[in-house]
TrEMBL record:
Keywords: Cytoplasm, Exonuclease, Hydrolase, Leucine-rich repeat, Magnesium, Metal-binding, Nuclease, Nucleus, Repeat, RNA-binding, Transcription, Transcription regulation. GO terms for cellular component: cytoplasm; nucleus. It comes from the Eukaryota. The keyword Nuclease applies. Its main location: cytoplasm. It is an enzyme of class 3 (hydrolase). InterPro entries: CCR4/nocturin_mRNA_transcr (IPR050410), Endo/exonu/phosph_ase_sf (IPR036691), Endo/exonuclease/phosphatase (IPR005135), Leu-rich_rpt (IPR001611), Leu-rich_rpt_typical-subtyp (IPR003591), LRR_dom_sf (IPR032675). Pfam families: Exo_endo_phos, LRR_8. Residues 1-109, 167-223, 575-608 are annotated as: Disordered. Its EC number is 3.1.13.4. It comes from Phanerochaete sordida. This is CCR4-Not complex 3'-5'-exoribonuclease subunit Ccr4.
């Protein structure tokens, strides 16, 4: 809405009509007025009426008259461009003389059909009136310019010298709230569209505006202006090639009171739109592509010719107001808005929307030629295996509050678990590494189902389960590794609790940062040691789930460093184990010269020479410190991701590991994304392998781009988690024989 909002310490003074009161309070009223504005002339009110207790009829809504007192005449236009979030007006209970219930629509005695007047519908009608009052050309731009010129600016900004410096997701310090004192909003921000009273809090929508923790925070492109007013200028057509759609930084777009008959799908390029006003045009339909603008909070379609709404709008999970008044809309949809408000309508559209067309199967990307693969398959000495890593999104985290764009039926665990299992079975990998598996589902579903496919498993939950009761602890998630029991023997299994390991390390200085940032997190990794039953080849498989918060990138680095230190220690001990004794030759097998079981099992002089896999959800993008550390084997002590925190030798000497790891997808480039939500789309899951002992044959490719462009995010009816599973096939490199020692040099005898 466009109500005057006054920021503390900033005086808003607008030029006023001589007949207008100077009261700046938006909801102030003279004592003798019981209506929301001046009365209409008798018999001409086109808006709903309500009945007073004495039986009199009074107009509830009206066009504001420029010469009548009260803030509805002009003041509600103040800073209309400046507010990205619009406060709802008081409900009917706070307005003298209003009553919830059936309200006759039309003039007294005209026999019009009654409609329900609820706070939801009052809010709808109020906003409709504000839009109708802004039909003049560039109304909001002119009002915003007037407001910005009249704002009193202080020469010296008043700041809190004791404010705590808050580190933003990019590592830069900024003034944050300290001791309950919020930072001030500059007048420049107000003029450019930022509401001085808006906050980052939630909304009243049924689906959530609060996002599930993301590894990095989405950022709108920086620009000096974020609002564009093209209202009231008689625009008749928006071509798909319009330069308007290149302004991807826009937050507010006003196309109201023009002559538009359609909106092109290219409007979806404006991904950061929070307010879109299409009122007062000649629209008959709404483009389904609007459902991709998931940042929308206000969508005004007042006074068009729209009869129905596409179910694709159900993905607008942050929408607070959908303006439909003044349209011949489907009565059932209108009734839903009247009784339950916009959130209920959006939820109805979301759950009634048919599933999109399934995407084509993900294609394998081969890193070896067909000839090499044929030769490899015909050589019994070549040993291959496959690894799958998958964050399955545990049941406790898959809530409608977080994934408001997902149909409720597609978000249930009963529906998702079957898709997850189908995905795992279809790849038939030797090692399956899962994250976010809770105790109950591991025991009751995954282990029970995968054991039928010949798998055995290793599982540990996060550390918090130790402090919970039996019922609650079964909902705690953790990491699991499943392996083909017919092919591999589990030698050992190790739990790596990052907080516990950090406390036990004498070489890590116990700083305040360690206690306040690292030790408060309960993330884990598990490390399992395997041996091939046929060849005796040993494998180290680690499955990790690092912290998510981008403001704790230093914690992710510490966790990654602790993980590699533990893998190094475990690998060195594993290398000391003597080789397995060779299996006795079978008398029935006369030709076993080329059989892998007849070869002597390999021995390892160093833990780094054992084939090693480190996979999981690292919550780190490819340009992060975690990725650099794992891929290059080192990280300097002055890397920005340390964010000026101190962690003993890690921040004094930097990080190092000796495994020579490389991402399985690095040869073709990391996938465009492995985590996909309405606000985040990046690769954060990886399968790392030791390049000295392993090579990649193939990796599972990306999801078809044409499909991704048409969906808001995961989970959805086709993808049961917000993560993609990643799969890679490896081959074991033959061990290089140590060169024979050189004989000692022989010198000719001296002639002396």
């Amino acid at each position: 809405m466009y109500y005057a909002q006054q920021s503390p310490g900033i005086a808003h003074k607008l030029s006023q009509h001589p007949g207008q009161l100077h009261d700046q309070t938006p909801w102030s009223r003279n004592a003798h007025h019981n209506v929301l504005g001046p009365p209409q002339p008798p018999g001409t009110s086109p808006y709903p009426l309500f009945t007073h207790a004495n039986g009199g009829m009074t107009a509830l809504q009206h066009h504001p008259h420029p010469h009548m007192p009260g803030p509805m005449g002009h003041h509600h236009h103040q800073n209309s461009l400046s507010h990205a979030h619009y406060q709802s007006p008081p409900n009917g209970n706070g307005i003298p003389g209003t009553h919830s219930g059936l309200v006759p629509n039309g003039s007294p005695g005209n026999g019009a059909v009654a409609q329900i007047m609820t706070p939801h519908w009052q809010n709808q009608l109020m906003k409709c009136e504000m839009i109708r009052a802004s039909r003049s050309p560039h109304h909001r731009a002119r009002a915003s310019a007037m407001a910005s010129r009249t704002v009193q600016k202080s020469a010296i900004p008043i700041t809190n010298p004791n404010a705590v410096k808050v580190i933003d997701p990019n590592g830069a310090a900024k003034d944050g709230e300290a001791n309950g004192t919020p930072t001030s909003t500059s007048s420049t921000a107000v003029a450019n569209g930022a509401s001085p009273t808006s906050t980052a809090g939630g909304s009243t929508t049924a689906a959530s505006v609060a996002e599930r923790p993301r590894p990095t925070a989405p950022k709108a492109p920086a620009n000096t202006w974020t609002s564009l007013d093209m209202g009231g200028v008689n625009i008749k057509n928006l071509p798909p090639t319009s330069g308007l759609f290149s302004f991807s930084f826009l937050i507010n777009l006003y196309l109201n009171h023009n002559a538009l008959t359609s909106i092109p799908p290219e409007i979806t390029r404006l991904k950061h739109l929070e307010l879109l006003d299409l009122s007062g045009n000649s629209l008959v339909t709404v483009p389904p592509e609007l459902g991709l603008l998931t940042s929308l909070k206000e969508l005004y379609l007042f006074d068009n010719h729209i009869t129905t709404l596409p179910s694709e709008l159900g993905t607008l999970h942050q929408l607070q107001t959908l303006g439909i008044e003044g349209n011949p809309i489907d009565p059932s949809l209108k009734h839903m808005v009247q009784e339950q408000g916009t959130p209920a309508l959006i939820a109805h559209l979301r759950d009634s929307c048919s599933a999109p067309t399934p995407p084509p199967a993900r294609m394998w990307r081969n890193l070896i030629s067909p000839t090499e693969r044929e030769n490899m398959q015909s050589d019994p000495n070549v040993e291959t295996f496959s690894v799958l890593s998958y964050n399955i999104l545990c049941e406790r985290c898959a809530t409608e509050r977080v994934y408001g764009y997902t149909p409720s039926w597609a978000l249930t665990w009963k529906y998702r678990k079957d898709l997850i299992m189908e995905e795992i079975k279809s790849h038939d990998c030797d090692f399956v590494c899962l994250q976010e598996v809770d105790i109950a589902q591991y025991e009751e579903f995954f282990l029970a189902t995968l054991s039928e496919q010949g798998y055995d498993g290793v599982f540990w939950p996060k550390s918090r389960y130790k402090t919970m009761g039996e019922a609650d602890r079964r909902m705690v998630d953790g990491c699991a590794i499943f392996f083909k029991a017919s092919k591999y023997t589990l030698v050992e299994k190790h739990l790596v609790e990052f907080s516990t390991v950090a406390m036990q390390r004498a070489d890590l200085k116990k700083t305040d940062d360690m206690f306040n940032r690292v030790l408060t997190k309960d993330h884990i990794a598990i490390v399992s040691l395997f041996e091939n039953k046929e060849s005796g080849t040993r494998f180290i498989v680690a499955n990790a789930h690092l912290h998510w918060d981008p403001q704790f990138r230093d914690v992710k680095l510490v966790q990654a460093a602790l993980l590699m230190d533990e893998v190094d220690k475990i690998a060195n001990n594993f290398a000391k184990y003597p080789p397995r004794p060779p299996a006795p030759a079978s008398p029935t097998d006369g030709s076993s010269d080329n059989n892998a079981s007849s070869r002597p099992p390999p021995s390892y002089s160093d833990g780094a020479k054992i084939p090693t896999i480190v996979c999981g959800d690292f919550n780190s993008v490819p340009d992060s410190g975690v990725y650099e550390f794992l891929s290059s084997g080192s990280l300097p002590s002055d890397h920005p991701d340390w964010m000026s925190y101190t962690y003993g030798k890690y921040t004094q000497d930097g990080l190092r590991h000796k495994f020579g790891l490389k991402s399985a997808y690095a040869a073709i480039g990391e996938l465009p994304m492995t985590n996909f939500t309405s606000t985040f789309k990046e690769p954060i899951d990886y399968i790392w392998y030791s390049t000295s002992s392993l090579a990649v044959n193939a990796v599972l490719g990306e999801v078809e781009k044409s499909y991704i462009d048409k969906v808001v995010g995961f989970p959805n009816p086709h993808f049961p988690s917000d993560h993609l599973c990643i799969v890679s096939e490896f081959r074991v490199k033959p061990q290089k024989e140590a060169p024979a020692p050189r004989p000692p040099p022989v010198f000719p005898e001296s002639s002396r």
